[in-house]
Design brief:
single chain, 44% helix, alpha+beta, 3-stranded antiparallel β-sheet, 82 residues, 4 helices
């Protein structure tokens, strides 16, 4: 099973990071208002970055690492310049 870490751009231009095993399902859930509390009032959301990882622990560590990044570093990651 693959795990994914993803970054969403919300309608208010904020960035949200999460992990999942079903990236399309999570994107749909966020846009339907049944995703994370953070994204419920910031819809619609757009997938701007994703990474595939081999296991849950790796995905959780990578999510945490991305969440620790400054906005500028997250934008560089999204642009493909990590």
């Amino acid at each position: 099973m693959s795990y994914f870490v993803y970054v969403l751009r919300c309608a208010d231009d904020t960035l949200y990071t999460g992990w999942t095993t079903d990236i399309e399902g999570r994107l749909t859930a966020h846009n339907r208002g049944i995703g994370a509390k953070y994204t419920r009032s910031r819809r619609p959301v757009e997938l701007v970055h994703s990474e595939s990882l081999p296991d849950k622990q790796s995905a959780m560590r990578r999510e945490w690492a991305i969440k620790q990044m400054s906005r500028a570093k997250k934008l560089a990651l999204i642009a493909g310049n990590p």
